[in-house]
Specification:
Blueprint (H helix, E strand, L loop, with lengths): L2 H16 L6 H8 L3 H7 L4 H26 L3 H19 L8 H7 L4 H24 L4 H25 L3 H16 L1
Helix pairs in contact: 1-2, 1-4, 4-5, 4-7, 5-9, 7-8, 8-9
């Protein structure tokens, strides 16, 4: 594995576990077993540049997972159910859903840095686009699909945060039952 990717992978885990402010450069260097010079060779603008690279990596993983799920199921309702069910299983198995969200990083850094905020916004926009495309394929107008996709993103991301703070999967289980049912009513 190349050094830059190694740094991104380890730092992503650290940022998800401890937050951006909770992880110092020294901890990243030690966890990656690299020198400060090597770090700045790959990330000349420092820790924030690394965070943006981590967010991009997370975006690729999350959107690929969502796209694969939405391609496997014929309707938005079924795909949404399957996606949330997978999040519940992941949470119950691992006690976290770190690989499926970066809401904690958004809340910590989004208002402090425009490049970080833009990177986070790109992920949420991509998620909503995937949902919207499937909703339009289900027969919803583009306008309605866009509105429902926004509601889906907010519900799922909020459910993830509730699971993490309550240390239980029931918020996502409830959303798993309610959200697909709401899609029938539109």
């Amino acid at each position: 594995m190349d050094t830059k990717l190694h740094i991104i992978n380890i730092a992503t885990t650290l940022f998800q576990q401890k937050g951006y402010k909770g992880v110092g450069l020294t901890e990243i260097l030690k966890a990656c077993d690299i020198s400060k010079g090597s770090f700045y060779h790959h990330f000349p603008n420092g820790k924030e540049e690394l965070l943006i690279a981590c967010l991009q990596s997370i975006k690729e993983v999350i959107t690929a997972d969502i796209e694969n799920t939405f391609k496997r199921f014929p309707t938005t309702q079924e795909a949404t159910q399957a996606m949330i069910d997978k999040l519940v299983v992941d949470f119950e198995r691992e006690g976290t859903i770190a690989g499926s969200t970066f809401t904690s990083i958004v809340s910590e850094m989004g208002s402090l840095s425009e490049p970080v905020r833009d990177s986070c916004s790109d992920l949420y926009s991509k998620m909503q686009e995937i949902y919207s495309i499937k909703l339009v394929a289900d027969g919803f107008s583009k306008e309605t699909a866009h509105s429902i996709a926004l509601m889906m993103t907010a519900s799922i991301e909020g459910g993830i945060m509730l699971c993490l703070t309550q240390k239980e999967s029931s918020p996502l289980k409830i959303i798993s039952h309610v959200l697909p049912s709401l899609l029938k009513k539109f």
